[in-house]
Amino acid sequence: MRSRTALDAETILAATEDVLRRYGPEKATVLDVARALGVSHASVYKHFSSKAALREAVTRRWISRAHGDLAAVAADTSSAAPERLRSWLTALFASKRAVTSEDPQLFATYRVLEAEHSGAVADHIADLIEQLRVIIADGVSSGDFTSADPAATARTVFEATIGYHHPVHAAQWQAPGADAALQALCTLLLDGLRPR
After folding, report:
1. What single DSSP character describes residue 167?
2. What pLDDT does residue 1 have?
3. Which of 43, 83, 138, 149 has the most C-beta neighbours closer than 10 Å?
4. What is the model's pTM?
5. What is the CA radius of gyration of the chain?
6. Nearest-CA neighbor of 44 among 3, 4, 11, 12?
């Protein structure tokens, strides 16, 4: 067996996504990935030490790709903190909704993979909450927000908006009025953060 292109981690991850789409997470194997690439399964193991390591890498890749723009929104200090917070929450919802509607088979697969790889998910959530903390801390510094503990406030905002980013709520994201409901929630949160 010979691959026509150089075998690297990114090539393997792309092939793994295709295999997961085709067979689902329960049936997909490293051997299936190797066959799709035209290589031996030992070649795949040279890059990923186990099936679990491969699946975790695919999960991290998907999370990164689906939410890559959020860090830029959080770091964009050209916008005031209240606008950044609203933009960030809106972008998070849009990215979650896009991945569910654009590739529902792969999204269903990733729900299973996320459950298996709580480390990848925990790291992702910690990163999202840190982005929120940065926005809130900037708002406290500018006088737009009040918070004795921006980290705790960030976690609270994340949890208050869980219906717009946790996969268990995905069926509701396409409902009429979902965007308006998120904007109403953003307004409520921003009002709560404003100094009195």
Report:
1. G
2. 44
3. 138
4. 0.83
5. 20
6. 12
